[in-house]
Amino acid sequence: MAPLTVYYVAVGDNGISGPLIGCGDSLVATTTAPVRFTDQVGPSIGTLLANKSRDVGLSGLVNVLYQSNLTYLGGELNGSTITIWLTGQFVLGGVCDIPRAKAQLEYTAMAASDATSAQVFVDGRPIDEVLSLK
Q1: What is the pLDDT of residue 6?
Q2: What is the distance between the alpha carbons of residues 40 and 125, in angstroms, rounded to a whole number?
Q3: Other C-beta atoms within 10 Å of 54: how many?
Q4: Where are the domains of the chain?
Q5: Concatenated DSSP letters for 57-106?
Q6: CA-based radius of gyration for the chain
Q7: What pLDDT tens digit does each residue of the chain (134 aa) get?
C-alpha cells in the first residue's frame, strides 16, 4: 500500500508552487491516502478522472478535468516514456484549460510510472490533436 500522486492546478501562481503551465499557472502534486495497487498508473489517473469537483478541498487548487467524461483504458511504459490511453470527451472551461488538462494528465502519469515524458491518447488520437482549437 502506498499513496498515489495526483496533480492539480494553482491558477495564477506563475510557477511558484510547481512547474509553470498554461496561462501563468502552476502544477502542484497532491497525495491520496494509501491505496492497494499493482499498477500505479491506472489508479492514479482513475483518481484524477473520478474527481468531479472543480475545487480540491480548501487547498486553492483546481481540477480542470472535473466536467470531462473520460475513462482510463490502459497505459504502457516504454523506456522513460509513459503512454496512456483514454476514451471519452473533454469538457473544459476555456482556452487556458487546454494546457492545464494536458499537464494534469501527463504529470500524474509520469509520477505514477517514474517516467520523464508522457504521451496521452484519447480515442486513439494524440491529446494535442483532440484539444486543438483548429
Answers
A1: 97
A2: 23
A3: 13
A4: 5-130
A5: TTTTEE-TTTT-EEEEEEEEEETTEEEEEEEEE---SSTTHHHHHHHHHH
A6: 14
A7: 889 999 999 999 999 999 999 899 999 999 999 988 888 999 999 999 999 999 998 899 999 999 999 999 999 999 999 999 999 999 999 999 999 999 999 999 999 999 999 999 999 999 999 999 76
Give dist(CA 114, CA 97) in Å, integer: 25
Nearby residues of 51 by Cβ (< 8 Å), 6 or more positions away: 6, 63, 65, 66
Residue whose C-alpha cell reads 491529446 in the numeric block: 127
Task: Report the alpha-carbon distance of residue 60 to residue 100 in Å, rounded.
Answer: 15
Taking phi over 0 as left and psi of -120 to 50 as alpha, with beta for the rest, 123 belongs to left
Cell of 101: 488538462
Q: What is the pLDDT of residue 25?
A: 98
pTM value is 0.93
Q: What is the C-alpha separation between 131 and 25, in angstroms, rounded?
A: 18
Distance CA 2, CA 44 (A): 11
